[in-house]
Amino acid sequence: MIYEYTRSAKSQNGSSQIAIPNLHTVQTLSSEKTANALNKSLPEDRSARLNVLIQINTSGEDSKSGVPPLFRGSPGDADGGELKQLAKHIVLKCPNLRLQGLMTIGALELSLTATETEKNADFERLKETRDLLSEWLVRELGDEAKGRWGAGEGRLVLSMGMSSDFEAALKAGSDIVRVGTGIFGQRKTKDEVKVSAASS
């Protein structure tokens, strides 16, 4: 059994995340500082590089983590410097990590209002960002670097969609969906956990 870490990745949590047995992927990477912490924390005897997905804030919500997406047609793909530099940093400076792809937690409203004929704008933005980043990585690092990122030869995977919208995400081309609530039920709030602990 392998594990995927989907909670917010922070540099100070690097060693505790790495301590998870059979950790396969961290899906929530959004800074060079956290990438460096994860890279440094990996044990020397680990048999394979740790897969990481960069979290993209496709909805632009302040409450969401992640770096800004890329937009086709923007001069120099404006506002994409942060994502490009983070991706390049992982590939070139973090030998224990493998940039596997991109992840987003889109706006709930878009998931609820998207219909069979109307596409989810967050999912489409992540796909466009993946395509632009892939093109940029090949231009910047060359074809020979393709073996150092993505699943297979430079194909960045997409993690988008949760229990409420996973079907739409799969139709949109998601490789990974996060359906913990659909399997395990709603997570207890901190207050519910405190009450439960106090009564036992």
From TrEMBL:
Domain Alanine racemase N-terminal as annotated: residue spans: 22-187
One function term, GO molecular function aspect: pyridoxal phosphate binding
Keywords, ordered alphabetically: Pyridoxal phosphate
The keyword Repeat is assigned to this record: no
InterPro entries, A to Z: Ala_racemase_N, PLP-binding_barrel, PyrdxlP_homeostasis
Entry keyword annotation includes Transmembrane: no
SUPFAM superfamilies associated with the record: PLP-binding barrel
Pfam families: Ala_racemase_N
Family recorded in the similarity comment: Belongs to the pyridoxal phosphate-binding protein YggS/PROSC family.
PANTHER family with a match to the protein in the record: PROLINE SYNTHETASE CO-TRANSCRIBED BACTERIAL HOMOLOG PROTEIN, PYRIDOXAL PHOSPHATE HOMEOSTASIS PROTEIN
Protein name: Alanine racemase N-terminal domain-containing protein
Lineage of origin: Eukaryota, Fungi, Dikarya, Basidiomycota, Agaricomycotina
